[in-house]
């Protein structure tokens, strides 16, 4: 593959000058090309690899492409540093990179949110609640699993297994902590109460 040949050629030129402190980056805006190139490079050399899907696009598609490309390589044990490229605020690139690392289990600091997709049983604003919980816990460094579930039929199972979680009812929600029910609280108050309980953990 030409991309890899070019990178190997540059590395060889540096080696001729006794320079070995090299990191190789072989980015492409095409996910499959980028993944194939890094896999080949990992077979061909021992240099650290800097991963990225370049010019990946706007926030949503750029994140999906980066997660697919960077995530699959990291899960194969390939890659040493990463860069997420988004046509958006650079702060979002950092958050996206952290989220990719968190999603594949490379970073285990911070909160992991488990939330259900909602269905006909949902009688609470679960989408709003899950987004609010995620936003308010974005800077929390505690390695906790927090469940935000939409009903009292299937929700309690996940909420019990998490460190802390809620299972929504009609205008109210059950709060679980370490597998035990702490209480039933109105929908309007449940996020504040959940956050307060997490602060105590
Ligand atoms: S947890 Fe309840 S509300 Fe959520 S998807 Fe499952 S059944 Fe539906």
Draw up the topology in text.
Blueprint lengths: L1 H15 L7 E2 L5 H14 L4 E3 L7 H17 L5 E2 L7 H14 L8 E4 L10 H11 L8 E5 L5 H7 L2 E5 L3 E6 L2 E7 H14 L1
Parallel strand pairs: 1-2, 2-3, 4-5, 5-6
Antiparallel strand pairs: 6-7, 7-8
Helix pairs in contact: 1-2, 2-3, 3-4
The structure holds iron/sulfur cluster.
Describe the structure.
- The chain is α/β, with parallel strands linked by helices.
- It has 2 domains: 2-103, no CATH class; 112-200, Sulfite Reductase Hemoprotein, domain 1, CATH 3.30.413.
- The protein has 7 helices and 8 strands; from the N terminus they run αβαβαβαβαβαβββα.
- Strands 4-5-6-7-8 form a 5-stranded mixed β-sheet, with helices on both faces. Strands 1-2-3 form a 3-stranded parallel β-sheet, covered by helices on one side.
- Strand 7 and strand 8 (180-186) form a beta hairpin.
- Helix 1 (2-16) runs parallel beside helix 2, helix 2 (31-44) runs parallel beside helix 3 and helix 3 packs parallel to helix 4 (90-103).
- The site of iron/sulfur cluster has 12 residues, from loops.
- Iron/sulfur cluster (SF4) binds next to loops.
């Amino acid at each position: 593959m030409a991309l890899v040949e070019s990178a190997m050629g540059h590395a060889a030129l540096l080696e001729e000058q006794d320079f070995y402190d090299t990191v190789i980056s072989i980015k492409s805006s095409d996910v499959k090309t980028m993944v194939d190139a890094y896999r080949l490079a990992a077979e061909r050399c021992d240099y650290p690899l800097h991963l990225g899907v370049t010019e990946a696009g706007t926030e949503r598609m750029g994140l999906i492409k980066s997660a697919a490309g960077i995530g699959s390589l990291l899960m194969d044990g390939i890659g040493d540093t990463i860069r997420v490229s988004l046509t958006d605020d650079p702060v979002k690139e950092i958050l996206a990179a952290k989220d990719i690392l968190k999603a594949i289990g490379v970073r285990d600091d911070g909160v992991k949110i488990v939330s259900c997709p909602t269905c006909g049983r949902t009688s609470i604003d679960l989408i709003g609640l899950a987004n609010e919980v995620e936003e308010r816990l974005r800077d929390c460094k505690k390695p906790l699993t927090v469940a935000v579930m939409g009903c009292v039929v299937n929700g309690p199972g996940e909420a019990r297994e998490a460190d802390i979680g809620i299972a929504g009812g009609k205008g109210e929600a059950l709060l679980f902590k370490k597998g035990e029910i702490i209480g039933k609280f109105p929908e309007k108050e449940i996020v504040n109460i959940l956050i307060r309980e997490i602060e105590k953990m």
